[in-house]
Write a structure and sequence with these properties.
The chain has 258 residues and is mainly alpha-helical. It is built from eleven helices and no strands.
Amino acid sequence: MSTPVRPGAARPAAPDPLAPLLDLPGVREAADGARAGIDRLLGHRVLRRESAGVSTESALRGARASAALAGVDVPLAELRAGSVTDPVVQGALRASAALGSMVETWPKAPGQVLARLHVLAAADLADRAGLGRPAAHAGPRLGGLFSLVTGATTVPAVLVAGLVHGELAALAPFGVADGVVARAAARLTGIARGLDPKAVSVPEVGFIELGRDAYAEALAGYGSGTPEGVAVWLVHCCRATEHGALEGLAVCESLLRG
């Protein structure tokens, strides 16, 4: 028999549906490691005066790495010189550069932001009529993703970012530039949920350093939907985040040296 709740009394909080993720093999420890890596980065003294410069460089390096994960790997020097015209790279650059303007909107209107990300990422890759328009088959699952983005949870932000990344990459709602959009949305989730509020880490570089084959295998594990596959993917995301924090530290040190 249920216990009646007297008028005015607080009702018990609903259980957090994401909390069981922390009990998957290796996930809690990996999330703690990612948080520690980001905290080390955020404590760097350069960020007291040069966080905007670090964020700008992080966005550039992240765009390059995201394009490389999509199969177009170009030297950072060429990207910095503005001599790269490849549409995948240009789309990744546009999406990365726009994230700062989307931080406030993402937790409230993720569908709007996702459409905008696709317009930026796929502008030179898809027909204009299809830009920002997910396929009909994606509707129900996108609804679940939007609830994830707008909802509250006690699990670490790095895991929510990993879920956003995995869902969009597995669902491929647009059919073109989905990987770039997924990685941009994951980074945006980390920024908006306070994992990296200054946007100075480079998680995309972390995925590159762990290897494109490992990235594809971990994503396939997530796509399988098994607890083991989800665990492998989330641990992979956490490790990439740790590597991305080290990349951010390297940017800080380069600015420190002038």
